Amino acid sequence: xxxxIQVGMADLKLTKAPNxxxxxxxxSCIGICVCDTTAxxxxxxxxxxxxxxxxxxxxxxxxxxxxxxxxxxxEMDKNGASRARLQAKIAGGAQMFKFSGESDxxxxxxxxxxxxxxxxxxxxxxxxxxxxxxxxxRTITFDVENGSLLVRxxxxxxxxx
Amino acid sequence: xxxxxxxxxxxxxxxxxxxxxxxxxxxxxATALAQMINSKIDMNVPQVxxxxxxxxxxxxxxxxxxxxxxxxxxxxxxxASLLFIIRVEQACRLxxxxxxxxxxNTKPQEMGEMEYSAMMELGNIISATYLNALAMFTxxxxxxxxxxxxxxxxxxxxxxxxxxxxxxxxxxxxxxTQFKKDTEDVVGHFFMLPEPGxxxxxxxxxxxxx
Lengths: 161, 210
What we know:
The structure holds two protein chains of two kinds. Chain A is an alpha+beta fold. Chain A has two helices and ten strands. The longest helix of chain A has 15 residues, at about 110-120. Chain B has one domain (about 5-200): 3-Layer(aba) Sandwich (Chemotaxis protein chec). Chain B has seven helices and eight strands, in the order ααββαββααββαββα. Chain B is of the alpha+beta class. Helices cover about 45% and strands about 30% of the residues of chain B. Chain B is globular, with a radius of gyration of 17 Å. In chain B, helix 2 packs across helix 5 (about 115-140). In chain B, strand 3 (about 65-75) and strand 4 (about 80-85) form a beta hairpin. The longest helix of chain B is centred in the N-terminal third of the chain and has 26 residues, at about 10-35. In chain B, strands 1, 2, 3, 4, 5, 6, 7 and 8 form an eight-stranded antiparallel sheet that branches. The interface between A and B is large, with 37 and 42 residues.
């Protein structure tokens, strides 16, 4: 039986086909989806912040872009994925509040997006598609069978990337 | 800087003290809300919870729920975040009541600048009354920022706010009150999220420090 596995904020999960991975209500956070469609294994990390080296409390590695990407690689390795076949898709990184000031927290979505792209490139993981930015939330469902990512929003349409 | 372990070490007396300030703050805020919409508002006994980030959306009814969130930061001796979260349908009803229109007049897809502005004013007044009561009780200085408004999935709105707590902790202390109209309908949830370092300041001011 195929099941849909929920991934919470600052969390990371791995599964094999035909299961799917899902995370609800991505705002400034980013869902990083990585899969190997030949080994039919995939993982999803729901990160909140760009950089674990700037944090006072970096223990939860799934919370930060840099450490979560390393964790994704380790988990995928352990479960028979080939590093060369890995492909990534990302969604999220929005700016949720209107009339926001200049404070850093309001730009966190943009900083998260930059950090994720940078760290994927650093690890030589191919970024196939992204649905990031804007001012709206996203709920995503990742099919590890074929690597397709369904992005749902409220009032900003629904698409598969 | 205080961190997770300190949250988990809170005694019953400290939890009760936090509930009590929540009660006083929310009581005043409920009265202000009732005056704005000219209708009776009830509230529940405030809850104090120490939650992992991913459990916070469950307090409201799930990360997927369509809500309006009004967010303010508190500056002064005890920095915190304040968040008033309302289901979109309820927000429309509140807007109608505030503007003296028949309830059901405003539809979610018709919410525009005027309606947002009304909602922000509501958030402003609720937060200011809540903080005034808290400041009087604790003798701490608490100044609210200008409100910011978001209308989207509850999880998405919470993300942006919880991210700033993510730098220092994996848990967040939530002081939550539900406002109800005519006893049964939940109007909205009001959250106060003290920054980790503020907790000691508040507890000391209440005379229940470690």
